Queue: 4 jobs
Job 1
Amino acid sequence: MNILRIILILFILVLAIPANATVYHDKMKEALSGKSAKSVALTQALDGHIFAKIELSNDTPEVDEKFEIKITLFSDWLDVDNIRLERPESDYIIYEKFSNTQPYIKTINKTRFAVLTYVSTAYSPMSGKCSIAPAKFKFTINLPPDENKLLNNNLAFYKQLLLQSKSLSAEISTQKFSVNIRETASSSADMISEEETSNKDPVRNIAAIKPVPGAYGDFPPVFHEKPVFAVIRGIFSLTILLLLPNFIHRRRMATDKQYAALYLASTAANKNIGRVVNALRKGAPRAFYEEIFELLKNYMAIRLFLPETSLQDDIIQTSAISEYLDSDMTTALTEILGRCYRIKYSGAECDMNEMKDTYRQIVDIINTLNGRKRII
Amino acid sequence: MKKKTAVICSSIIAVLVLICGITAIMIVKKTSVNTPSKVFDEGCKLYNSGDYAGASSKFEELVAAGTLSGNIYYDLGNSYLRSRKIGKAILNYERASHLGSLTPETAINMKIARSLIKQKIREKNISWLTVNARNIFGTLSFRQLFFFTEVILYVILSCIICLLVFDRRGIFISVIVISVFFIVPAWIIRTERLRDLNSGLIITAPTTDAKFEPSNKSATHFPVYDGMKVYLTRTEKDWYRIKRLDGKIGWIPASSAERIAQ
């Protein structure tokens, strides 16, 4: 029922207001949507680019029932903050004065459309809010012509528009809610064309002052000199420097076959040499030579790409081992292998000194094969 | 094991970036919105009533008291421009754009003020990259630019770390390339802003002769006019050695110019 009444009232008002003064701007409606279902609003064009919207918090005010009226001026241009909305001259009591809060600016970028809703009176207000209790409430707002300068920054800087002097009057009663816009009788300023304005003194064209101080800060800004930024960058740089050798190593492991073989062989040798030392300390020749054989088998397989089963005298003599070792070392290696086979398969005996010599020889051989990457 | 290491590494990197980002925001975003003071209000009223000299003195009072905001500098610039003090107006618009962002109003008014300078000096050796960078990032304040470039820098450094740790490199390389695309123009403007803050001067005297030597007896090299932007290269007693935008160098009395960064 209420909705039907609202629709009916709005329909009557649309018909009542002259066609050129009424604009139901879809985008603006969309921008200002989200009000309570009971509120009722009228949006009208004051001029080509300025719109007035009057909202009532209650669509069916009773006599002496307090309700809220909000007047908002906005524009589809960006800079309208020098429009002055004075406190309405009303023929009825206003119970609460216009509220005094910070301006609220809503911008919808996609449609290049800004709604500036200043809920403030002291600092060049754009909108005012007051509570009234009507039997009948009537008010008029004068928009002085010389204050309503608009600057369109989407166009060239010198182009601007002066709004004609207008009066906004609204009448609200329990029966009716209507808004009319008419030219003030004293109005003399006409719309000034862009060309005319640009030919005049350019200082006249400057955008208006800002009515609020905005966010405070320090000037000159010296925050960039704070050591914390150097520390942050230092942490990042240090992390990169620490990770870089590992990255290089990983890259070489993936691309350099020789490097990968050397690294993996050394790792394997380091692992096995510990077990060899343990066997030596225990004085267990069989275990010692078994570990030596295991070490050589693993190491050679990785380092020189030899099959694990091919660790025989003749292969050692002819394989790549001879490229890295001199003849003495090759002979020593052959002897060690022979000793390994003898002890492993025939159970031959050997003393501690012989084991120590073998250990020294094997360390020398592996260190030589490793080049700079020594295991001990 | 490898997966576990990767998770730990990525967590460390994420925490590192988060800490750095928060620290940067906390330091850079040290601004507060306050209600307008009585003096500011009086300044606005004087301006609206047409008393621009009175308005500028009120806004100057605020600046002297250390109450600084982009809007106050902008309003002060407007008051000076209305009083036909072009140099002072440009100076304050410059300050407004460094403290707050370069709002459309500030840009428009600064352009109007600059159009009133007696001699137009063309900037020397300006690259297309700088021109485009100005178009993209020119409206940001130094604070916003600094924050933006720092965050992008942290992202790039984090991606480099990720490149070193993880084997899947495609995504990190892509992020680095995109970030570099953004950071280069932003860094150019950041450097420009820093240059303005460190050595930017605005001529506030009507006409000043730049001399070959820091002495009144020295021959005149070129004139500089009210509102011109120059860069300070050296100071000597009461003289500034300046470099004009076209690259000319000369000495002017220190009293004839004001530094953008007070």
Job 2
Amino acid sequence: MRIENHPIIDSYQKGKKVKFTYDGKEMEGYEGEPIAAALRAEGVMTHRYTKKLHQPRGIFCAIGRCTDCVMVVDGKPNTRTCVTMLKEGMVVETQYGVEARRTEA
Amino acid sequence: MRRYHLVVIGAGPAGLSAAIEAAKHGMKVGVFDENARPGGQLFKQIHKFFGSKEHKAKIRGFNIGNELLKEAEQLGVDVHLNSVVMGIYDPLHITVAEDDHITSYAGDNILVATGASENMIPFEGWTLPGVIGAGAAQTLMNLHGVKPGDNILMVGSGNVGLVVSFQLLQAGCHVKAIIDAAPRVGGYGVHAAKVARTGVPFYLSHTIVKAEGNEKVERVTIGQVDSHWQVIPGTEKEFDVDTICLAVGLSPMSQLTRIAGCKMVDRGGLVPETDEYGQTSVDGIFAAGDVAGIEEASSAMIGGRIAALAAAKRSGFVTEDEFETEYQNQHASLMKLRKGMFSHENKGRTDLVKTDEGYPLSMSLLKNGYIAEDEIGEYPGVGRTKKVGVHPVIECTQNIPCNPCQDACKFGCIEVGETITSLPVVKEGSKCVNCGMCVASCSGQAIFLVDEEAEEGFATITLPYEFLPLPEKGDKGTALDRSGKAICDAEVTQVRTSGAFDHTALLTMKVPAEMANRARFFQKREGVR
């Protein structure tokens, strides 16, 4: 899902390649890009499930307004992944309600 | 507490332009933006801008952003990033959340240039991952180099929907269709035409019925609406898509002006009431750009400069006379943009049938996204008399504010005149040297160089081409007409690139002579897209 060559954009402003984990799985992205961009590039669509109805949610606005893309990042829930920049070794987890694990109702 | 002569909230086109103008007049300026990078939405705009030279026409949005940033830096403007302005408090103070602490700043003047956020429409399945804002698609692909999806449905045919659709094609995505509940294409005809000729179908008077899929978007159903916006049973169509982009309008992010106690008015969203200088009802608080009323980046940049001049006058950095002269210049520049078919006064009108010059508007362009073959002969850029040799064919048929084609031709073939919303005229008897500058400079990609009699039985057509992989000389393929329909075989005879063309390649293809006025796009045999 990465754009390798673009007719207009010569290069993207990107940091070095870094590793992070998504629900325990090792993934790669670029330092300084939003976590959400790195996840989309790896094909991850669901960022969280809603608390009551357990419905999936993903990127919607990508500019930090709608909060649909929040996840648990380094243990911190409700982190807006579209405006939080990726760092080496980040632990990114699907958010269930406001937690990293699904608790049975 | 830090104090600035001018505090600017928002580092987009309006905010940065204001900061530059104020700093030029000796004001100490601090710009605050919640994002990690400045520029607002400018760095996501990879198309060439409209307007004229003074509005930075034919320069791509992100390059304008870079110019503004450099200028602001050279003038010593303080740009505070990752800084969320939480409120404006009496008299002229702001509180800012930076990292994990809160700081207070004072401004002799405050300019709110916070822009707008995207609207959305609810439908069955609208919360599924894969339903995104058109701006989100731009952010992912143009800033971060990530495709938002592979197969896309665009909802909304305004300029945002049209421009983003073209950018999705450039990023290598498939746009399955553009739909709009309105009966007419909302954005510039030229933006629609450049998408339509690649084969993207338009469905006007259509809305989304539902999005479906397991955990994410896999399918979408659209349907035609009647005059009461209700779906007509039996008109439903299904598309396999993984992404639905919503480009259904913008709303001003005017919360800060409300907090500050500015008088608000409803103008397609709540905006602070301002005078012609951007001054709100609270003395010293100004508003410019989309937050003061949704428009576009070119006019936002001028609005920012005008508000900065007014702030400079208020604080004694310019005299009354200096202000008046500079304001009149900026105002004149703004008025050039605010003319024509898409101006405020004509917004939302569906009764327009003629251009300002009296040419009939293409109804097919408004309904299907492309000009019908029986409509194209009418326009002054197309020309009615028989031409010999290569000549420009300008398929610019609506009064939009734009004139780079006139400046591009050094041989005087093209005339727009003083009013930049006028249709370009290809002058009779003028000499075209086939340089291609007009083709590359047209922000709407509406100019073609046509030679009806390039060789026995064949015509050549030179068209703007902004996709990868770039075809090469000798490539064989198919010519598409304005609607994107394959009409004949075509062979690439020349591909020109140049720094002066700024990433717009000029592709020349050879087609049977009778296709000269129909063939408008080239598709390589294996399929370009």
Job 3
Amino acid sequence: MGERAEFDVLVVGGGPAGIAAACCAAEAKLRVAVVDDNPALGGQIWRGEPASPGTSQSATWYQRVARLPVHIIAGTRVFAPVGPRTLMAESEDGVCELAFRKLILATGARERFLPFPGWTLPNVIGAGGLQALARSGVNVRGKKVVVAGTGPLLLAAAAHLRQGGAEICLIAEQASWRRLLAFSVGLARHPSKLKDALALRRELAGVPYLAGCWPVAAQGKEKLDSVILRRGAKTWNVPCDYLACGFHLVPNTELAALLGCRVEQGRVRVDDFQQTTVADVYCAGEPTGIGGLELSLVEGQIAGHAVAGHLDAARGLFAKRKGLRRFAAGMDRGFALRHELRNLPQPDTLVCRCEDVPLGRVREHSSWRAAKLLTRCGMGPCQGRVCAPAVEFLLGWNVESVRPPVFPVRVESLIATAASQSPS
Amino acid sequence: MTPTYDVVIIGGGIVGAACARECAFAGLRVAVVEADFAGGGATASGMGHIVVMDDSKPQFALTRYSQQLWRELAYELPPDVEYMPCGTIWVAADEQEMQEVRRKHDFYGVRRVPTEILDPRSLYEAEPHLRPGLLGALLVPEDLVIYAPCAARFFLRQAQARCCDLHMGRVTGIRDHGVVLQDGSVLRAGTVVNAAGTWAKELTPGLEMRPRKGHLVITDRYPGFVRHQLVELGYLKSAHTLTAESFAFNVQPRLTGQLLIGSSRQFGVEEKSVDNHIIAGMLARACEYLPELSRMSAIRCWTGFRAATPDKLPVIGKCPGHEHLYLATGHEGLGITTSLGTARLLLDQMLNRAPAIPLEPYLPGRVMETAHA
Amino acid sequence: MPDLVQMTINGVAVRIPRGSTVAAAVLLAGSSALRRSVSGELRGPLCGMGVCFECRVAIDGRRHVRSCQLLCREGMEVTIGG
């Protein structure tokens, strides 16, 4: 580390899509590396899954990648390109240059957070966020958790937390019963998804699942005490230790955009073989459109086969991908955000948590850039990753423009980009 | 047809906004036409420093005059303008630079600008994080730092509170009777002021001006790490050469506790994108003076373009060959500093008032291509 | 017997299960908040995956380090509330 390494295929992101891509490429005898900013592989959904023998889906994939000479570069964050085929990455110890002939972006997604009064209190955490923290060592045993927001992630997070000993008070899903019903009908066409859904239902037996329900305020002094929920005309208070709240997912497209890939409506545009509009740059999984675990695995495999030139193997997965994408479209419709959520934040509710900018000040402007320069919203270290999706939903603005570094890095890491041996 | 306005100002950046304010205070009916949002051009990209510079006597006169106008506003400016009277410390790394320190001290002393020569002990007391081995410095306590986009907005609001209209739109042509906008509409005015910065030349083609690209980096919050704006004396060599590319050490504390790191200059580059090599070179230079910077978190990088004239002085005055067109542009890296002075001098000319400093050095005739009719 | 890592949080010695992240360690040690926002509000982790920056703490004297993706190390000195 701290040097330059060259690979046939570099995979950015070690979640399911990245692991699947790496496996297919490495099985084709290509020299493959996976770089991820977490301490180990797994991305979000498989975070902390033990790589022990077993028959679970994650274990199967972990075993498969472990059998292959794939270079795993963990705890390392890609932050900028330094040439047409080289990315610069930073870890706690230094920087490294990662050179490639083909690049597969499997950068996943992040949760969408919507502001409401009290959302900045400690113990108001994302749904995936609290699940991630629980997988990273946080003890939720005996803690009362309200799970709220939208999307299948709420169920997965609630089930996982319950397994960890948490008491799930209820799950508040903002989508209406009508929409959920329509979505469930779509489930029937996907037997494996139906099976998963029923399994989740069993794991969450006894936990109230309320549709058309959302948080209107989090209350507490130095940390969360309770959540006020609304459903129809009724609002009520639920005391709890944690509010695990997230409103579905937003693709992580920043690196793709920085590399010049076409990004449309927040999704990286790819062809049938998962290639982006930039030659030799592929993208698989959530950044091409939120679609869940199975779709990420399929797209990852297609990309892995494609970079190896195994186009028939890739084509063999097209039908499965098509079906899963149809399911994903249904998911988008089912869990679309209702307009009432736009009214949750008050003028003094913070929208930008890095710079503590309230909605009232942001709203005075007519574009993201003006709001950013005149209120500081989006100028903080998160580079708008938290506030921009919220602002896009609340105010209908288009948030664009990405510059290096795509994450904050140490000054010395930026200096190291000039020492790059690759021609710019 | 009577003009709608006495003055139309093209450009709502810091210079245009300052001019609008000055016009409104003088009782003129003024309109500002802005294509994006007020303060969104070079105003938004720069460091927001308000410094006296003595590269030439006219440059000194204008920067000092304008700085004093800024200081008069200290209590009027709203908090989001982040007015910081932190002063500047010009750092000397060798004997040649110390001679420059003494020369500046004398030059400013004669002209009643307070400065203080710092010996190494005083320098390190003032700025403990500077690398050891520096020979001393010049402290200019009356230099300031502000946040320019909010200042531009403030000036415009002051103008709008009197008799100023802000029109959102892009000017495509200047006529004798006013300006033509992209949507075909016309704003009629007795006088037009071209304060369009790097776009000024599109509307006044004879103007000899080139964009000079700069890069900046801002860090996370490290309050108290640096207390003054810090500049190397080599800055002068950078700002005032005409070579393709140059860096100089320039670190500024922001009120938030963040450190703003510059500076760089490039001619002949029209691409807006961030260049890793420039960023790296600029940061490496900064770390030579502040070694602890290297482990700090850099949050963002960006670029901007300064409008630069061949003699590094702005153009302020009537455009030769035009009865009704004035220019207020070409401020290179001193737009924030000299915005208020520019506005005053512009109005002095428009209203035939006696200017506080001679305005001949800034008249546009000197940088207009003679072939232009 | 769980494998524990010895470290300090604001000078107080704690023992944390190996494999935990620093953010988890702080929560395990009993504090819901890791930092103060720019206007002084107490803040805890939000995203759990390194994008929100609410989990910034000082590690061994270095400020603004995200703690939710960093594994605890023996002897690590964590400072929260900055």
Job 4
Amino acid sequence: MSAPLLVFGWGNASRGDDALGPLFIEQLRARLAPAELARIDFLDDYQLQIEHALDLVGRERVLFVDASLDCAAPFEATPVQAQRDRTFTTHAMSPAALLQVYVELQASAPPPCTLLAIRGERFELGEPPGAAALRNLDAALDWAQRWLR
Amino acid sequence: MAFDLETAATPEGLRRVAIDPVSRVEGHGKVTILLDEVNRVQQVRLHIVEFRGFEKFIEGRPYWEVPVMVQRLCGICPVSHHLAASKAMDRVLGAHPVTPSAEKIRRLMHYGQILQSHALHFFHLSSPDLLFGFDSEVQQRNIVGVIEKHPDIARKGVMLRKFGQEVIRVTAGKRVHGTGSVPGGMNKHVSREDRDGLQHDIAQVIAWAQDAVAIARQLHESNAGLYDGFGSFRSNMLSLVRADGAMELYDGVLRARDTAGQIVLDGASDQRYFELIEEEVRPWTYMKFPHLKSLGRERGWYRVGPLARVQNCDFIPTPRAEAQRQVFVARGQGAPVHATLAYHWARMIEALHAAEVIEQLLADPDILSGDLMSTGQRVGEGVGIIEAPRGTLIHHYRVGDDDLVTMCNLIVSTTHNNQAMNEAVRSVAREYLDGRELTEGLLNRIEVAIRAYDPCLSCATHALGQMPLDVSLLDADGSVLDHVLKSHDGTLQRDLAAPLGLPS
């Protein structure tokens, strides 16, 4: 049985600020009370892929979390709409493209989804996340706790 | 001596076209093309820029961490690195062979990875090109078009992928960041509940895989002129095989065939790969060029992956896939099939084989119980070779008495295919670009040829906004004649004033 809320972060823990997605999942779990945890499923992966569309089935709300080079610091939270874009055919889909896969597979609208993009700077193999990125992560976690209530 | 079209005789004054990076290919790579004043192709190079630092990432770490850490080298085939490192560390510890239960659970994990990776590639990464042709509308090449016109195909792709991921979860412990395989064996069995769940679905999965082979074969046979000729060139082929010549993707001996299909290397121990393969460095790219030492650099380069494996083996030890292999081989009429696009057909034959092997292993009680760990006399050095979805993957380690890795050498499948991918793009450039005005459709042919190899450039970085395409056309003086930017969502924009190249 799926929990009503899904929090899904992605990234590579060994590639500098790319670790923000998985770190967000880890730290959010530690912050939440048992009653809150009971209504949330957590998921982390390296990248968004087609089969993740099936992880959205039966949810009331979904929060996607990823490191971003494009967003303003410390983070940006935006609703995601299903959209046909070229990332359908890449190893790294966009959240919008994933929702489109959901629409095509389920023949119904996906649950409301929000993308939490946390500002990162460096993504080199073997580097730890930077200090600025970790500050952005803290701010994003504070926001997420309010969003989840 | 250089390879044809690798280096222009007089590069000065030629126009340079860069496809940077190659879209829909994992990681960071680019293609540069030099054209003369009448658009004749003088030089074509595929550059891979993401292969630095992997060995340094591993050296200095405790050996027991390595099978887990290497998964972070690649977000696309982490299981292959997990298992290749485990096999190498088995040797380091002298814990070889591992127990029957450990070997079968690892094998199950590996064939799950093969199935899900091949399904993703065929149904979602390459099928838009294959189903609609290369000159179709850009948006139609998108998988959306596949979904609309072939909704059942898209669903099967997702479900095959999902099943493969589930096989990985029940064997590795988690869908990602698995810890199931350890130096010397495995740390858990498959639970009966998980086994039963997979068994419930396996007949359907095999049926879908059979459909996939039929689609791939139909695509090839229905447009034989294109499929047989596009990006085609003759090459040697290398892979593991079982000692009796059967297809073998988890563990075996090395075999190579020459361009005519004759065996030139057979029964070679994976532990001696470095006596057989030499990695050549060329000044214009970071990625090395492996070749068989016995044949030399000009004649010894080879292809790996599905096209090589399906033809290197004498037979596939599962009945449905073997029947399909025979159909495939017959297409060559006694000679090897060298067509680049035949990779797709061969890939689906392997997906079917993987599904059949999974069925066999799920019925084996050894995955549910039995000893999981082996021990032995530590030797301090070991090699693990596995046939990853994209081809032969080599991990080689030395470990000191303090348990820390002192030497690491990785040869990934994309490196093995480096020369072959360069040959493929040169073949396409020679046939389709030479003497013509460049168009997006023509440039896409270059990418179609590369994508057939399913290259994984081993970059798990994917931060939002990082997959643009930047094509610039410069005249002999370096002035910008044309500059097209494509954002990660596919939007095309001409902007002569924008800075050239991607941000570092």
